[in-house]
Amino acid sequence: MKDKVVLITGASSGIGRALAFAFGLEGATVVICGRKADALQAVSNELRQAGIHVLALTADVSVEANVKTLIEQTVTSFGKIDILINNAGVSHRSMLIDTEPVVIQKVMDINFMGTVYATRYALPYIQLAKGSIVGISSIAGYRGLPVRSGYSASKFAMNGFLEAVRTELLHTGVHVLTACPGFTASNIRFSALDAHGQAKGETMRDEGNMMTAEECADHILKAVKNRKRELVLTTQGKITVFLNKWLPTLMDKLVYNTLAKEKDSPLKQ
Ligand SMILES: NC(=O)c1ccc[n+]([C@@H]2O[C@H](COP(=O)([O-])OP(=O)(O)OC[C@H]3O[C@@H](n4cnc5c(N)ncnc54)[C@H](O)[C@@H]3O)[C@@H](O)[C@H]2O)c1
After folding, report:
1. What is the predicted pLDDT for the residue at 7?
2. pLDDT digits 0-9 by tens, 31-81
3. Which of 14, 55, 203, 245 has its CB surrounded by the most CB atoms within 10 Å?
4. Residues 211-247: pLDDT tens digits?
5. For the chain, domain boundaries
6. Cα(168) to centroid of ligand 1, in Å?
7. How many angstroms does the Cα of residue 171 sit away from the middle of ligand 1?
8. What positions does the domain Ketoreductase occupy (predicted)?
């Protein structure tokens, strides 16, 4: 990764932060982006202390002009972008019947349109570098998950978008990776939106019993180095993707019953 410039969206916590360390410790220059300047600065300081060359830029990925500026500032600073990691994301937890559509719009704007903006504006530079475009998707991008219909939709959209882009770029030397973590300990469940768009502020799962963000980032780093097409993480995630392909009706019941056991689940057991 020496001499590579890696742009990571949503890097002030969780998997994005861990990716900044993973790529940075391999010698890459990392450009980290997030909405909150304070949180971003704190991560930037930690990265610098670890000897990593870092630039922190604030941007809301759901705002096209912000993302355009983010790409321009990165190129002005370093002259290129080798790897773009579309990581910024938000979830929601509410039954569709209760959910204000604007909540689903917000999830789509961040998870999907954020990926569209960053990929579109970074693409000329990634093509020059014959670099990599990475989407941090989810198992929810292969198997629709109840109580997260908008989140699943945004990750299905991301998967389809990146598959199409990968095919468009087949003869250009650009690598496109769809990375689908399973449950990973992070902020994602705390910041998940409720039916009215407020952060839940709590998790409904045992965060201590999950893959860590650092383990997840190591798998993604390896997949980028090996220019893999797709990465599906955790045994549970792999089984879910496999069974859903061949036994989707059985999976409706299995997924329902599993997620009905989550604390405060609105699904009836
Ligand atoms: N943790 C999991 O269980 C899990 C599983 C599968 C996929 N993912 C995906 O991994 C990615 C990272 O999530 P995480 O688990 O590290 O959670 P996280 O909440 O710790 O990280 C998400 C990051 O995105 C940032 N972000 C949110 N909205 C943004 C916006 N509009 N503009 C810029 N930044 C924004 C947040 O501030 C945060 O830093 C997400 O795309 C998520 O969907 C997570």
Report:
1. 98
2. 999 999 999 999 999 999 999 999 999 999 999 999 999 999 999 999 999
3. 14
4. 999 999 999 999 999 999 999 999 999 999 999 999 9
5. 5-235
6. 27
7. 31
8. 4-186
Which ligand 1 atom sits nearest the alpha carbon of residue 137? 7
Tell whether ligand 1 has an atom less than 6 A from the beta carbon of residue 15: yes
Residue 14 to residue 34: CA distance in whole angstroms: 12
Question: Cα of 64 to ligand 1 centre, how many Å?
Answer: 18
Q: Which atom of ligand 1 is nearest to the CA of 211?
A: 3
Specify the residue for token string 């039916």.
195
ipTM, two decimals: 0.99
Cα separation, 74 vs 69, in Å, equals 8
Name which CATH class applies to 5-235: alpha beta
Question: Rounded to two decimals, what is the model's pTM?
Answer: 0.97
Q: Say which residues have a Cβ less than 8 Å from residue 98's Cβ, sequence separation at least 6.
A: 195, 266
Q: Which residues are catalytic?
A: 151
Q: Can you tell me which residue has the tokens 């999976």?
A: 251
Angle at the Cα of 185 from the Cα atoms of 206 and 90, rounded to 5 degrees: 110
Residue 219 identity: H
CA distances from 9 to 61, 102, 252 (A): 8, 23, 33
